[in-house]
Recover the amino acids of this structure.
C-alpha cells in the first residue's frame, strides 16, 4: 500500500478547540502583548483551510504518487512567516496597534523561573510559550510544495481575519 503522510504544524481556524492562539490575539487586543526574542522569530501555523487544500491536492494527484517508486513518504506542511507579520495581521483584524516592545528571551525565561520558584503567581506566559514566540526555526513545506506543485491557497490575512471575526465581537473583546 502506498502512503502519503502529511505532518502539519500548528493548525488554526475559527472552530479550533485549543485556546492558545485565541489567548494570544486577546492579549494583543487588550494591549498586554510584547514580543520576545529576535525580530526574525517565526510563526509556524497553517490554517485548517490550507490543510484541506493540501489533502485535496494529494487526492487530485494520487496517480503521481501511486506510479512513483516510493511506498511511503512524509511531508511537512506549514505556512511560516515572521511573528511580527503574523501578529500584525491579527492586530489589523482586531483594529488595534501592534505593540513594538520587545524583551530578550533570556531575560523573560529568568523572570519566569523566578516566578515559578519564588512567587508562584499564575500568569498566562509560560516558558514553553515564550520559547515558541522566540523560535527562529522554520517548518518547511518546500518538499510537499515542489512534489505536488502546491502552495497555501488562502492567505493568513484572510484566515486570521476569519478567526478574529469568529472569536471576538467588533470591539475585539472576547
Amino acid at each position: 500500500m502506498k502512503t502519503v503522510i502529511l505532518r502539519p504544524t500548528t493548525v488554526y481556524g475559527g472552530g479550533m478547540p485549543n485556546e492558545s492562539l485565541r489567548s494570544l490575539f486577546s492579549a494583543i487586543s487588550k494591549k498586554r502583548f510584547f514580543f520576545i526574542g529576535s525580530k526574525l522569530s517565526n510563526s509556524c501555523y497553517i490554517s485548517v483551510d490550507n490543510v484541506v487544500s493540501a489533502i485535496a491536492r494529494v487526492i487530485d494527484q494520487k496517480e503521481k504518487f501511486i506510479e512513483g517508486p516510493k511506498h511511503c513518504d512524509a511531508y511537512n506542511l506549514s505556512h511560516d512567516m515572521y511573528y511580527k507579520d503574523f501578529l500584525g495581521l491579527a492586530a489589523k483584524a482586531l483594529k488595534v496597534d501592534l505593540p513594538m516592545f520587545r524583551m530578550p528571551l533570556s531575560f523573560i525565561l529568568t523572570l519566569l523561573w523566578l516566578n515559578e520558584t519564588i512567587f508562584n503567581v499564575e500568569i498566562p506566559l509560560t516558558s514553553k510559550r515564550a520559547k515558541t514566540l522566540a523560535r527562529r526555526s522554520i517548518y518547511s513545506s518546500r518538499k510537499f510544495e515542489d512534489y505536488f506543485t502546491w502552495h497555501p491557497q488562502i492567505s493568513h490575512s484572510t484566515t486570521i481575519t476569519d478567526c478574529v471575526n469568529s472569536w471576538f465581537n467588533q470591539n475585539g473583546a472576547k
Q: What stands out?
A: The helical segments are 20-29, 48-60, 62-66, 83-94, 105-119, 127-133, 142-148, 156-167. The chain has one domain: 3-159.
